[in-house]
Amino acid sequence: MTRDAVQGRRQPSSVDCKTHVGNGFSRQHNASHESITLLNSSSGHRDYRTTHTMSDKPSVKKSDSSQSVNDGLQLKKELGLLNGVAIIVGIIVGSGIFVSPRGVLEEAGSVGLALIVWISSGILSGIGALCYAELGTSIPKSGGDYAYINEAFGPLPAFLFLWVALLIIMPVGNAIAALTFANYILQPLFPTCDPPDNAVRLVAAIVICLLTFVNCYNVSYATKVQNVFTFAKIAALILIVICGFVHLIRGNGQNLSYPKSFDNTNTSPSKIALAFYSGLFSYAGWNYLNFVTEELKEPYKNLPRAIYISLPLVTIIYLLTNIAYFAVLTPDEVLTSNAVAA
């Protein structure tokens, strides 16, 4: 009698793993299960072969509410059109309109050319702002210049620009604005002389620290503070314009009359270039809304609209403010004053 031979033949088990990355993870595993089948061989011996059948296990999926791995952090969209206009106007209307009239007039040489420089600077700034409106809607990311340089030239130039802006460009601009603010705040306390340098620096440092804290504390609170100070600055400039036009109505506009307004005009290209430098400095800040594009509601609509509203508004305010300056003050008084609006 022969004994039954048991032959176990294992076929390679296959495992089909499918991973999908989307709103969550889903994995499907096909596990192999063994079954023994009895076969009759041609020799009369019974042959036990091990076969494998594939069965699907139910897929395991995470909740649809789970975040995708590829999804980045999204900032809260809390800024509307009014907030966008307030940001642009509030940043542009700063120290420039209070200190630059002296520099523009000094290089231009005449009131007439100085006013032309102010208008032309507004037009040039508007052209640049329109370019940023296109960039902001094409690349709707926060970060402004950094985001655009990164998309166009790669991470290294963007990284270098970011550090230059962080260590040089931004601190210098903020320091000038803070010092100008401190000078105007302290000027009424020292009517016959300039405020002490240490006092001006102390007030400027306090202002910078306070505003830094406000911006870090809460976005909503920071926008409210921004709106309040923006409206306060615009109201102050409107008051200056009203006072200036009252002088014009009373017949005190000799400095603005033609051809006297173009007396002593500088025709040197270098002088005119320096005049434009001072004028364009006063319009700096029209690109700052692009730094918070992700926080803007409907950025494809509100970003261009905010720019379209802000730049013409600022240009008109600057032009009327300078007319008011020259209606009240003579060119010599403007050139010798550290605080023109005081």
TrEMBL record:
Residues 44-64 have a biased composition (Basic and acidic residues). It holds the Pfam family AA_permease_2. Residues 39-68 are annotated as: Disordered. GO terms for molecular function: L-amino acid transmembrane transporter activity. The keyword Transmembrane helix applies. Keywords: Membrane, Transmembrane, Transmembrane helix. One of its GO terms (cellular component) is membrane. The chain crosses the membrane at residues 79-99, 111-135, 156-186, 198-217, 229-249, 269-286, 307-328. It is found in: Membrane. The keyword Membrane applies. It is a multi-pass membrane protein. It comes from the Eukaryota. Gene3D superfamilies: Amino acid/polyamine transporter I (1.20.1740.10). This is Y+L amino acid transporter 2. It comes from Medioppia subpectinata. The lineage of its organism: Eukaryota, Metazoa, Ecdysozoa, Arthropoda, Chelicerata.
